[in-house]
């Protein structure tokens, strides 16, 4: 019998052993069920982090398996490439109507102010949606919203509170109060809503992270489309942790099927047409200290003067008025800027046809200016004419290859149409373009977005460090 080891069998055993260790670590640190895709990404990031710390990969794995602050920091650093961040405002309209019309008013009868938690909020859309729903459901009662996520880059973007128009898909006009359509490319959360919403990093699988950030109990906890990526033991552990933070009578809202196979303990299942809710039974408990809710000042304008996103009725624009005198060569650029300003105002007011007309006139007046093309692209994208939008953006970048608004919008368009590699390359190119610019300089002319804010959003999209 040959005593020479079977090299292929030995290599296979080593590979299986490493895969098993990576799988165990992934479940231990983030609760994620191992897949071929996330194991490859996990191994690659571990090599990168180990090299950055100047230690061996084996030592880095030992660090992840340890039970200390350094391990928790590393899991936070790994999370951006391992967690899914797809979300948008008012996702699942029927459920949000249930929350606003039924659940929150009923909870307000028990106590106030209400404490609300969006767990696993990604870049903040769900947390802000919860705050917007609470503002309508509880006009005369105080509330506070906590949004948490394991991904620190996503939390940095959430604090900015600026999203693309794509995040408004499915949003009804009556739900826009509290949002600022500050331009044609982005949607900004009103400062009053941001003051009622706090964002912090939090690992749902870390037992020492409960209760989160000193808030001992919540009347409503929403954790949707987070647990579906996790193993059954991890889901059970997280649901138990969330339930422990519910006030008596409070409700836990999970995604469809995320509690399947999990023992719910004392939680009571309530079935509604819009979904399933898990309620903690009422029990005798010390009453929460009632704090007077701060008076909300009526404010229909942001500090910069832009209007809250409501239908605005303006006099119908007569494009012929702008064409009463043929433009002379020396004032073409000035006329183009005036037409572009009119088009931008019309776009914010929802007068899409008039805005497109005047943007086209601006383009004709000054064919070398990329900004009319950018505005036209935003208007095309708003009505899902993505091919026309991409054509306009490519024209803008032909005129100015470093045009910041065009690069931002093109990267966003790539993401909408599932061309993620092109989106990442475009965002990386834009981030390089922003390097060295003053942080408070305007980055998007139609949207009042600064270089610092845009850089934060880009770093979140690329999974890079959040600092500027």
What does this structure look like?
With 468 residues, the protein is α/β, with parallel strands linked by helices. It has 3 domains: 7-81, no CATH class; 93-279, Vaccinia Virus protein VP39 (Rossmann fold); 319-462, Tetratricopeptide repeat domain (Serine Threonine Protein Phosphatase 5, Tetratricopeptide repeat, Alpha Horseshoe). It has 16 helices and 12 strands. The protein has helices at residues 7-30, 36-53, 57-65, 69-78, 93-108, 125-137, 152-160, 191-195, 232-244, 332-348, 352-365, 371-382, 386-399, 404-416, 420-434, 451-462; strands at residues 114-119, 143-149, 162-164, 179-180, 186-189, 197-201, 218-223, 246-254, 268-272, 275-279, 442-444, 449-450. Strands 6-2-1-7-8-10-9 form a 7-stranded mixed beta sheet. Helix 9 (232-244) links the parallel strand 7 (218-223) and strand 8 (246-254). It is globular.
Percent of sequence in beta strands: 5-15%
Task: Give the CATH architecture of the largest domain.
Answer: 3-Layer(aba) Sandwich
Instruction: Name the CATH homologous superfamily of the largest domain.
Output: Vaccinia Virus protein VP39
Distance between termini?
65 Å
How much is the average pLDDT? 80
The total count of helices amounts to 16
The count of strands amounts to 12
How would you summarize what this structure contains?
This protein has 468 residues and is α/β, with parallel strands linked by helices.
């Amino acid at each position: 019998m040959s005593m020479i080891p079977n090299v292929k069998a030995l290599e296979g055993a080593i590979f299986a052993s490493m895969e098993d260790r990576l799988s165990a670590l992934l479940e231990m640190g983030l609760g994620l069920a191992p897949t071929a895709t996330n194991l490859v990404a996990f191994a690659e990031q571990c090599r990168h982090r180990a090299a950055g710390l100047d230690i061996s990969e084996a030592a880095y794995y030992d660090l992840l398996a340890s039970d200390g602050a350094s391990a928790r920091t590393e899991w936070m650093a790994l999370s951006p490439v391992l967690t899914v961040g797809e979300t948008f405002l008012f996702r699942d309209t029927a459920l949000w109507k249930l929350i606003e019309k039924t659940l929150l008013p009923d909870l307000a009868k028990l106590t106030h102010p209400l404490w609300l938690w969006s767990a696993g909020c990604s870049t903040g859309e769900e947390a802000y949606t919860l705050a917007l729903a609470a503002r309508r459901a509880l006009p005369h009662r105080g509330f506070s919203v906590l949004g948490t996520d394991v991904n620190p880059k996503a939390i940095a973007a959430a604090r900015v509170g600026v999203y693309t128009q794509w995040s408004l898909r499915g949003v009804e006009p009556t739900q826009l109060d509290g949002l600022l359509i500050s331009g044609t490319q982005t949607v900004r959360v009103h400062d009053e809503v941001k003051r009622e919403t706090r964002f912090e990093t939090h690992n749902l699988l870390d037992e020492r992270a409960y209760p989160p950030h000193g808030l001992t109990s919540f009347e409503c906890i929403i954790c949707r489309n987070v647990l579906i990526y996790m193993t059954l033991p991890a889901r059970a552990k997280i649901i138990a942790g969330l339930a422990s933070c519910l006030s008596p009578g409070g409700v836990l809202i999970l995604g469809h099927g995320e509690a399947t196979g999990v023992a719910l303990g004392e939680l009571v299942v309530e079935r509604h047409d819009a979904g399933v809710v898990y309620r903690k039974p009422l029990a005798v408990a010390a009453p929460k200290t009632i704090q007077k809710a701060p008076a909300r000042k009526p404010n229909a304008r942001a500090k910069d003067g832009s209007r809250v996103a409501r239908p605005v009725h303006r006099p119908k624009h007569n494009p012929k008025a702008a064409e009463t005198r043929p433009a002379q060569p020396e004032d073409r650029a000035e006329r183009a800027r005036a037409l572009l300003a009119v088009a931008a105002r019309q776009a914010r007011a929802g007068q899409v046809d008039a805005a497109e007309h005047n943007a086209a006139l601006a383009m004709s007046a000054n064919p070398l200016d990329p900004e009319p093309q950018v505005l036209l692209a935003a208007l095309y994208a708003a009505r899902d004419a993505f091919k026309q939008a991409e054509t306009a953006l490519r024209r803008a970048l032909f005129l100015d290859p470093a045009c910041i608004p065009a690069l931002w919008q093109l990267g966003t368009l790539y993401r909408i149409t599932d061309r993620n590699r092109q989106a990442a390359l475009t965002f990386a190119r834009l981030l390089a373009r922003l390097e060295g610019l003053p942080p408070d300089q305007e980055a998007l002319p139609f949207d009042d977005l600064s270089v610092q804010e845009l850089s934060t959003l880009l770093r979140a999209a690329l999974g890079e460090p959040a600092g500027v």
